[in-house]
Amino acid sequence: MLRRPRRNRSSAAIRGMIRETHLSTDHLIYPFFIVDGKNISEEIHSLPGNFRWSLDLLLPEMEACIKLGLKTFILFPGVAEQLKNKTGTYGYAKDNFYLKAATEIKKRFPQICLISDVAMDPYSSDGHDGLVADGRILNDETLPILAKMAIAQAEAGFDLLGPSDMMDGRIGYMREALDEQGFTKTGIMAYSVKYASAFYGPFRDALDSAPKDEVGIPKDKKTYQMDPANKQEALIEAELDLTEGADFLMVKPALHYLDVIHMLKENFELPIAAYHVSGECAMLTAACQNGWLEFDKAMPEALLSIHRAGADAIITYFAKDYALLTNK
Ligand code: PBG
Questions:
Q1: Domain-embedded: residue 143
Q2: What are the C-alpha distances in Å from 214 to residues 126, 207, 210, 223?
Q3: Catalytic machinery residues
Q4: Among 215, 226, 263, 294, which is most exposed with the fewest C-beta within 10 angstroms?
Q5: Residue at 14 is within a domain
Q6: In the structure, what pLDDT confidence band is assigned to residue 328 with cuts at 50, 70 and 90?
Q7: Which domain holds residue 127?
Q8: Could you tell me the distance, in angstroms and rounded to a whole number, from the CA of residue 278 to the centre of ligand 1?
Q9: The CATH number of the domain where 265 resides is what?
């Protein structure tokens, strides 16, 4: 045998020398759920280790994460039911607690990159990412609402906006609106290829944002989020977002869509982000809690795989765990 690949695996020194993929906290984006109020840190039952935070308790938690080397955070609002309506007006209201929190966070930690969520579902009494009328999700009528949210978020100080709504044409619409208002420095991390996935369950529990089970309201998001069976279509979505002015292209979920991440990385020059979603993290946590998998080994392997597939940035509920592990 002239070729013996095992020679290059024979010691930790050799393995380290030829390792192809390196993952660090630089690549990780840590999601936080924020609610209005004080002294709240409520654990999400279907996503153990993750909480709904009020700002006063979130700030010290963020500080601890920053000390561990995390630099980028994505914020999602848990909105009280009485503030929701059909048009999601609280999303850009002057007294919106989420926007005020972002300003406070950026004042306290100006060095971090703070990412928003642009979509109607946290604010919509129908629980959809767009406007619902006659049992349908309206596209073009949703765009001005998203643009208002985007401008309010840029004003609040978010560095990157994260449109997760999957309406057609929203990146270009938002980009133009932002530029007209002078927010040329605010970037867009587009949820370009977002699938109608069963793995968003714990997230919807966290925000109580699932489509409402009422007559006239579609039960799922299949008319705007992509069919998990499709891959070619991802190229169309990514191409549109690129030409409409996105700064990042995102694939979501991540672990079940590594082929799509890889395809985008091969075909586009923009940085690729991947969202390791709530259900993907929850299933690993559950297996570890049962003693079926070893967290400190399975978790980094999952994140490394997403990075190896081609994701430059990874949104993951394990960001702090990974930072803790690598700081040991
Ligand atoms: C909605 C949104 C969802 C997630 C992020 N933004 C859920 C959905 O589309 O219903 C899911 C993230 C996760 O599961 O971790 N705009």
A1: yes
A2: 9, 18, 12, 17
A3: 194, 252
A4: 215
A5: no
A6: confident
A7: 22-326
A8: 8
A9: 3.20.20.70
